[in-house]
Amino acid sequence: MKKIKNEAELVKKAIVIGEKYAINRGYKGFSATNAAKDKIESLYRLLVNDKLIQPLPVVQENQVNMKHKLALWIAKQLPEGHALLK
């Protein structure tokens, strides 16, 4: 797995955008007390379910790999020249 530049910031952006996507899909949203790891796993599973990202093999399903997948997903959604892609 190749490290992405600005991966931590991309994951934060993916959580924000992913939560908006989840709400549009009918999910009630996350509460302020939900941990980031729970949000990451929920968004990862939603995006896999909607076939927007490829699922990880079961043995590789962990927080680090899920974060990486979310960072890749949001990097493809951002417009060319976005500050996080530089």
Automatic annotation (TrEMBL):
Gene3D superfamilies, alphabetized: Uncharacterised protein PF16691, DUF5062
One Pfam family here: DUF5062
Domain of life assignment: Bacteria
Protein name as it appears in the record: DUF5062 family protein
Organism per entry: Litorilituus sediminis
